[in-house]
Design brief:
single chain, alpha/beta, five-stranded parallel sheet, 18 helices, 5 strands
Length: 417
């Protein structure tokens, strides 16, 4: 017999059963918890039909469902707009509360406000909790309660605020018997309008072995010295608390990279205009050249600068680009070719498996000199010295631009001198 009343937990960018803050809060209530996931058509309609990120989400939910199915439970998966789905759910179930984890992206904030209004009109409480970053949006503020605008002071304040209690886990995996007792059909990828992608998301690796060597190896694109954690943090397949625990134990450098992620998330929340405009508004007046043909050559990795081309080809073929090359290719597009950073940001957003608005936007504005950084306009990455420093033996270039010494390799798209 189905319970008369239930709570809902809404999976979004937190696709795991372990150490999930919102799920844990829901499971600690007396009512059984109906877990749901919505393939949001407002988002899906903007994506290519073979988007590997949708495939990754679908595969992850399939795995979670299989785990729950063993206990006669499951995740109810819907396709449509969240407002329509929730209207239907309120007619079908006697819902007491809805739980979710916070989302600081402009679309997510607007969506959640609409859902809150809908639920409020029916006397249903909507509770959200911080989960994808360690310190929520208003935890790290200056003495005057305004947000930090530069990374280093933010990092210093972050570290002062840090307390091991912040790494307390939320063991949601121990309470799964409190999930609503029903198995739901899992829609096929094709049913939601997508097809199998040739690209796949690599397994996350934040082992002690990798982190102990991280600072020494992370800048060499030919080495496997980075964690490839991006998609897993973006979609919450691993707990940020678990990752920070490893970082504090094994790598200060890796820890600082995670704090960059927290910083950009906070910037996006407090200054949502950055998703469309420069963080520093005077830089909206930069007179970009924006030559379409030049931009397309950059996209294809045909600029005549081997390290730039290698990065773009790696992105196009794998959905991944090494972080040092992200900085180089972004600097090259905006400061060498004078193409608006927003063009490059949008291209990365389409291609990157680990695309996360806050990080992508923050990184592009940092490279273009329009963002929060204290040294905006005179930092330029030299594409030749980057080879000498980080790919001296040419291993990475041999893999991605093997024809660079041949006659058919294009001349440099712009004269460096």
């Amino acid at each position: 017999m189905k319970p008369n009343k239930c709570n809902i937990f809404w999976f979004r960018r937190d696709l795991r059963l372990e150490d999930n803050r919102g799920l844990w809060e829901a499971l600690n209530c007396p009512e059984p918890v109906l877990p749901i996931f919505i393939f949001d058509t407002d988002i899906l309609k903007t994506l290519p039909r073979t988007d590997a990120r949708v495939q990754f989400i679908h595969h992850t939910i399939e795995k979670l469902n299989a785990q729950l199915n063993l206990q006669g439970k499951g995740i109810r998966v819907e396709t449509g707009t969240p407002s329509k789905i929730f209207r239907n759910l309120t007619h079908e179930y006697r819902i007491s509360k809805v739980f979710a984890n916070e989302d600081y992206e402009p679309y997510g904030i607007k969506r959640d406000e609409q859902i809150k209004q809908l639920l409020d009109s029916q006397g249903i409480a909507f509770h959200t909790f911080p989960d994808h970053i360690l310190f929520p949006k208003n935890d790290i503020l200056k003495a005057d309660n305004t947000p930090y605008l530069v990374y280093t002071p933010y990092k210093n304040a972050w570290l002062k605020h840090f307390n091991q209690k912040k790494l307390t886990a939320f063991p949601s995996e121990t309470l799964l018997d409190h999930i609503y007792p029903e198995v739901f059909p899992m829609p096929a990828l094709k049913k939601i309008g997508f097809h199998k992608s040739p690209l796949g998301v690599p397994e996350a690796n934040f082992s002690s072995r990798l982190l102990n060597a991280y600072e020494l190896r992370r800048d060499y694109p030919s080495e496997k010295g980075t964690s490839r954690l991006g998609p897993h943090l973006r979609f919450g397949t691993c707990s940020i608390r678990q990752v920070f625990r490893q970082a504090f134990a094994h790598s200060e450098c890796f820890r600082n990279q995670l704090i960059w992620r927290e910083f950009y998330s906070m910037i996006l929340y407090h200054f949502p205009h950055v998703s469309e405009r420069a963080f520093k508004k005077p830089y909206d007046r930069i007179p970009w050249l924006n030559h379409q043909e030049i931009f397309e050559r950059w996209c294809k990795g045909e600029t005549g600068y081997p390290m730039v081309d290698a990065g773009m080809r790696q992105l196009n073929r794998t959905g991944y680009m090494h972080n040092r090359l992200r900085m180089l290719t972004a600097s090259f597009l905006s400061k060498f070719l004078l193409v608006d950073w927003r063009w490059g940001e949008a291209y990365f957003a389409e291609k990157l498996l680990d695309f996360e608005l806050a990080n992508n936007n923050g990184g592009w504005q940092w490279a273009a000199g329009t963002g929060t950084d204290a040294q905006p306009y005179f930092r330029i990455f030299n594409p030749e010295t980057q080879i000498k420093k980080w790919d001296k033996e040419g291993q990475f270039l041999d893999e991605w631009v093997p024809e660079r010494h041949e006659a058919n390799y294009p001349d440099p798209i712009v004269e460096y001198k």
